[in-house]
Amino acid sequence: MSEDDALTVALxxxxxxxxxNRLEEALPYFEAALRVDPGCPRALAGYGATLARLGLTARxxxxxxxxxxxxxxxxxxYAALASMYLQQGxxxxxxxxxxxxxxxxxxxxxxxxxxxYTLH
Length: 120
What we know:
Blueprint: H1 3-19, H2 23-36, H3 41-53, H4 57-70, H5 75-87, H6 91-104, H7 109-119
């Protein structure tokens, strides 16, 4: 199996397991994807999402911010970060992230709504 195939399989299986809420099982697949390609924004985002749902927020923040460093135009990651900041009571940081998400996806009504909610 090529590295590209291994990466795709790991990402898809991790995503499937996360969607099934089998988070402990999903995590190793994202870790495997990151071993194949440590600079894969999609793997970092999936890893961050899984970590966040497991309550491992510090590691989730690191993964999300690294994904954005590598590929900055990802409104969904900014929205995920905003939600995490809100859960931690950091409304200012949440607003900043939602603003960035809306800037990247101005037609997304959900992002605009979430920004307005956070501003209140």
